[in-house]
């Protein structure tokens, strides 16, 4: 009989823990994120070819893989796969810090608007107009 009471108590404890975790997740009291700590390595995602990636049945929005054919991260959103490649932000102090075709603007390399071909002013960024040369030109005061 004593063993029966111990099993019953253990079941109550497990149920209580499970209920508390479920309740916390359901009401947003616990932040269900993944945190990796360490200084000797990094996160390795599933490494898939295009064929393998496209064979994933009903991927959830936010599914993330490493594409071995393009060397890029791919993520799934709204029935499409998108690639994340290259530098997202290039930091600079002056134009020469940026690669060809880009200029330094507020500490970040951006595409050089004067290299954008245009036919109308609407095709140029704010502060630029379409010049007679067919490229966006900075508005001169």
Secondary structure layout plus pairing:
Elements lengths: L1 H25 L20 E2 L1 H5 L9 E4 L4 E6 L2 E5 L17 E4 L2 E4 L16 E3 L5 E3 L3
Overall geometry comes to: elongated
What is the beta-strand fraction? 15-25%
Radius of gyration: 27 Å
Helix content: 10-25%
| Element order: H for helix, E for strand | HEHEEEEEEE
Number of strands: 8
| Biggest sheet: strand arrangement | 1-2-3-4
Question: Class by helix and strand content?
Answer: alpha+beta
Span of the ends, CA to CA: 93 Å
Query: What are the segments in which pLDDT stays under 50 over at least 5 consecutive residues?
Result: 4-8, 14-29
Mean pLDDT: 77
Largest sheet: 4 strands, mixed
What does this structure look like?
The chain has helices at residues 2-26, 50-54, and strands spanning 47-48, 64-67, 72-77, 80-84, 102-105, 108-111, 128-130, 136-138. It has 141 residues and is α+β, with helices and mostly antiparallel strands. Among the domains are: 47-84; 95-138, no CATH class. Strands 1-2-3-4 form a four-stranded mixed beta sheet. It is elongated.
């Amino acid at each position: 009989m004593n063993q029966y009471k111990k099993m019953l108590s253990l079941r109550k404890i497990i149920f209580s823990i499970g209920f508390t975790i479920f309740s916390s997740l359901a009401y947003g009291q616990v932040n269900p994120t993944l945190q990796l700590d360490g200084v000797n390595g990094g996160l390795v995602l599933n490494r898939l070819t295009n064929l393998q990636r496209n064979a994933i049945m009903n991927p959830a929005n936010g599914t993330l893989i490493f594409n071995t054919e393009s060397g890029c991260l791919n993520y799934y959103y709204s029935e499409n796969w998108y690639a994340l490649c290259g530098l997202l932000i290039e930091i600079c102090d002056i134009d020469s810090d940026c690669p060809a075709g880009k200029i330094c603007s507020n500490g970040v390399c951006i595409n050089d608007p004067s290299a954008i071909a245009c036919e109308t002013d609407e095709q140029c960024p704010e502060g630029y107009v379409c010049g007679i040369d067919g490229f966006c030109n900075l508005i001169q005061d």
